[in-house]
């Protein structure tokens, strides 16, 4: 959509759009986009709420008043509850039960990554592709990089872009594995943020570095690092 927006703008047609993944939109820098803090697949919030959906569309259209870009505006409201019952998690790999023998959060994440490996492999075989790979790291290396930020000091060399991509790879790995599990009929985004040690680690990282002297790290954490609905 961002590339299409550039083409249309070159032809003299003003464009606007809605972004669910802020990092991707920041990279593409389209002329005008509205970032919304909603789950993937729901750019207008929740089904069956036309008033709220109208507000989202109106906020995106209002960006057409901006003649200079790129413009990336935030939609400041969370989506209201959908009223839909939470689907049950039927995957044999469930992280909502008793804790493992792992004694640290880092070990718990390592165990999750191992347990999800068969389902991730099944997803790749089934679809012939994956969205994991933005960091250029193997998944265990991405996990190690993210975990290392728990003990990051101000003096340590640190590539915040690599860190961001490593987190995106881990989230994609979890979501693709979850969606491939037999009989899985769940909101995988809710499962990811409510039941996994990975996102407990991400929240802990956000809490540790929210006031970091590193401006790039503070900016990352402030820009939807943890979705508002799951904070």
Low-confidence stretches: 86-92
Q: How many domain units?
A: 2
Radius of gyration: 19 Å
Shape: globular
Structure description:
The protein is mostly helical and 231 residues long. It has 2 domains: 2-74, no CATH class; 105-230, no CATH class. It contains 9 helices and 3 strands. A 3-stranded parallel beta sheet has the order 1-2-3, with helices on both faces. Helix 3 (50-62) links the parallel strand 2 and strand 3 (71-74). It is globular. Residues 86-92 have low confidence and may be disordered.
Quick overview of this protein structure:
The protein is mostly helical and 231 residues long.
Write the layout of secondary structure elements.
Blueprint: H1 2-10, E1 17-19, H2 22-28, E2 32-35, H3 50-62, E3 71-74, H4 105-127, H5 139-148, H6 160-180, H7 188-195, H8 197-209, H9 215-222
Parallel strand pairs: 1-2, 2-3
Helix pairs in contact: 4-5, 4-6, 4-8, 5-6, 7-8
Name a few traits of the molecule.
231 residues; mainly alpha; three-stranded parallel sheet; 9 helices; 3 strands; globular
């Amino acid at each position: 959509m961002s590339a299409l927006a550039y083409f249309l703008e070159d032809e003299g047609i003003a464009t606007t759009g809605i972004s669910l993944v802020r990092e991707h939109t920041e990279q593409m820098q389209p002329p005008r986009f509205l970032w919304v803090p909603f789950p993937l697949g729901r750019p207008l919030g929740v089904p069956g709420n036309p008033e709220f959906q109208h507000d989202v569309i109106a906020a995106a259209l209002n960006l057409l008043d901006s003649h200079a870009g790129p413009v990336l505006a935030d939609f400041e409201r969370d989506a209201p509850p959908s009223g839909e019952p939470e689907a049950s998690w039927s995957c044999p790999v469930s992280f909502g039960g008793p804790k493992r023998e792992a004694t640290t959060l880092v070990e718990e994440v390592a165990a999750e990554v191992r347990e999800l490996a068969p389902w991730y492999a099944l997803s790749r075989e089934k679809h012939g592709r994956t969205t994991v790979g933005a960091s250029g790291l193997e998944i265990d290396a991405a996990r190690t990089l993210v975990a290392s930020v728990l003990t990051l000091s101000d003096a340590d060399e640190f590539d915040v872009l690599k860190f961001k991509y490593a987190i995106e790879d881990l989230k994609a790995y979890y979501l693709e594995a979850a969606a491939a599990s037999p009989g899985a009929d769940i909101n995988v985004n809710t499962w990811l943020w409510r039941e996994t040690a990975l996102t407990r680690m991400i929240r802990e990282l956000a809490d540790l570095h929210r006031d970091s002297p590193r401006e790039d790290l503070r900016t990352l954490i402030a820009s939807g690092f943890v979705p508002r609905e799951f904070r």
